[in-house]
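U., I forgot to send this yesterday:
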Amino acid sequence: MVQKAKILLVDDRPENLLALEAILSALDQTLVRASSGEEALKALLTDDFAVILLDVQMPGMDGFETAAHIKRRERTRDIPIIFLTAINHGPHHTFRGYAAGAVDYISKPFDPWVLRAKVSVFVELYMKNCQLREQAALLRLQLEGGGGKATVGDTKEPAGLLAELSARLAAVEEQAEALSKQLDDDSADAAAVATAAHLERKLTGLRRALDALEPGTGSGAASLPSPN
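Result:
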C-alpha cells in the first residue's frame, strides 16, 4: 500500500485551518494542523512532510521566524514552504519571505484551484523521492548481503533481483519524466522545476549504478548515489 504524504498546515486561526483542509482534502493526503510556530516545529521533530503551508502573521513566533528554525534543522531544511499572508505587502516583504526559504508566497484571499495545484506538485515530487529511496535501499541491502546472496525473505537469484529493481526504477523514471513535462507545460515556478531536475539527476545516478552491476560489466560494487 502506498503511504500518503503528510502536509503541514500552520495558522493560528481555526477557521483558516478549516478552509485549507476543505481546499486540500481532494488531494487525498494526510493533513496535519498546527496552530502556532512552536506547534509546527514540534510536529516536524517526529514526522516527515511533503510541503508546509505557513501563515506569516501569527502571535509569538511568526512565519518568518518559524521558517528560519525549519531551515536550520538538517532533518527539515529541504521541506518546501509556501507562505500564506493576508497583509498588503510590498517587494521588500515578499523578498523577506523568499529569503527565509519559501518556495512560494501567496496572498489571501487565494484561488483554491491554484493553491491545490501548487501543493499537488510538491506532493508528487515527494512521492517520487520516496520511491527512489526505496529502490536505493533495496539495492544496498543486496550489496551488503554479499552481492551473490538474496536478502532475507527473498528467493530470487541476484540476476532476477537486479532485473526487478531495474523494472521498478524504469517505472519511477517514466513517472518523473511525465512530471517534468507537466511542469514545463504548466510554466510552474522555478523551485518546483529545480526540484524535479534534482530528482531526475538522482534517478540517472541510480540507473548508472544498476547498469554497473549487470553481469559482464566488471563491477560488482558500484557506488550508489545518495537519495537525499
